[in-house]
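Retro notes
What went well: the complex prediction finally ran end to end.
Inputs used:
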Amino acid sequence: MLNTLGLHARAAAQVVRTASAFQSKVYLGNGEREVSAKSIMGVMMLAATQGMTLALRVEGADEREAYTAMNEIFNQRFGEDE
Amino acid sequence: MFYLQGAGVGSGIAVGPAYVIQQSVFGAAVQQVESDQLDTEVARLERALQNTSQHLEQTRLEVPDNAPKEIAAFLDAHIMMVNDPTLREETVKFIRESHYSAESALAAHRGELVEVFVNMEDEYLRSKKADVDQVIQQIHQQLLKDYSDPDVSEKSLDGCILVAHDLTPADTVQFMRMKMNAFVTNLGSPISHVAILAGSLQIPAVVGLHGAVSRIAHGTVIAVDARSGSVIVDPDEKTLERLNARREKYERHQNRLLALKDLEPVTLDGKKTTLLANVELPEDVDHALNCGAMGVGLYRTEYLFMNRMHQPSEEEQFQAYVHVVKALKRVTIRTLDLGADKQVDGGRKQGKVAINPALGLRAVRLCLRAVGTFRSQLRAIYRASAFGEVQCMIPMLSNLEELRQVLTIIEEVKQELSSENIVYDPEVKVGGMIEVPAAAITADQFAQALDFLSVGTNDLIQYTLAIDRVDDEVNYLYDPLHCSILRLVKNVLDAGANYDKPVSLCGEMASDGRYTRLLLGMGLRIFSMDPGAIPEVKQIIRQSDVACTVPFVETIMASSDSATRTGQLARLNEHGQPVQLQL
């Protein structure tokens, strides 16, 4: 997690929108729990804050594309402003 | 008479009869159903989810124009939560496996969710429990409608103080229309959305007052004080008098600011200045007008392009620009400043993330690459120029060749519009943001090639001092008083003066009252800032004498010692008035 605010509501919504665009199952894990990245509640429950490492698991027909897209939004810090 | 204490949010003091709303709260005993009822319960849940989603979607469409922009964002988040597949699956599991009624299953799943949230370490994330609760509450209300139709009164709340367990974003849209005077809620914290709401509506509210609903009787007179966070229930004569006196004092203060609104921003020695607003969303327009902005000095257009998959059409952009131009008459529209920290969702496919986005393909560089997008924005800007005084401003200029390309494209767009018989103002002024050190150093060349210049201090400071303001490790180095910055700003102001081209300053330095006199003394006359800062800056300008600031400014500019500069600035702000100058 690179962005300062962590996975706040808007960022979580972006994660869900991105994941939901793919057929594959997309999961995010914080070591303690693994949730569907297509569930807003699930993503918020990860309580991901800056500096935390999340595990991404993708499974399905378009897994490569999904993997790339998910990586990108995290690396771009959800287009967060200053 | 008794006192209750919570967290005060919003502003002001209100006195009026309490309007208490009773909402369903969880905690009822678990209800189990027979095996043959399970399908019915699942169907009830599905229907409730669907109705809640529809209700929220409908409310989303009805958000009034004057509502704070956050409300729509909160509603969007709630809509997404109601449609969350996991929420549905987990609740259905409780019905199927534990034979719970739909209500009990929902309460049970809520319990699971809430437990995770309350144990979170991060305060901000923990506060999101409130959203989970509100969404589930709304689904629960829908389920209850199967038994009775709770009468949602559309009465006017004029003069009343709303007392509720909690207010959902959907509730607030409804209550805004009913003109509530103030509100008190059991739940909520100073960082919750109800607090943001009170701030935007500029009404007093007290949140996090546990037990408010049960301890305040419907119809009792109560007083709400935003500053102290106290609620006085059934105040006696004397207390009422005292409260009214304080309310009047507060209103006088507000009126003083308001009175300032129509006063000229002119210095004691008669130098006229222009105070403009920086705006972004269409909603900012009213705020800018209320604060006495004389126009818009920086209209950021990025928001039109962000958080969406497709670019806005020329028509959509045109409509947005005309809205601002009609309201504020004189508007400087900045062309797209995307890239760096502002990425578009739709831009995901445009390739790799730059290694150093602040120095990468952004703003005008990106526009010259995506010429189609640039042209459609320019067309929209020029079309809007038929409705008021429009200026066009190019961000991130660093060399004149780039600028010439832009000017060529602008000429082509103008010819195109003429040949299509579309009305526009052929005299639209074209200016540049001076935010790259290269442009600040060669400001004389840019002043000759452009109609006006605007100093963007935020980026200029970043680029000049080579520090990322967002980076906690180095942002202590961010210093608007650094000699290099003062010299660059002065250089731009002088270039403007030499070639008779107006220079404005639209970075945060313009909003910060500490720098107002310094900038005046350096020669700045056009300030563009966050609308809320206008009254304060205007007050300082009206109490300044430019001639008296000059010796201070000269000392500050000449000093190589940062402590001296800071000290002199403080003296300028304290003593830089005519009477005290005989030192």
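What we learned: Residues 63-75 of chain A form the longest helix (13 residues).
What to try next: split runs per interface for comparison.
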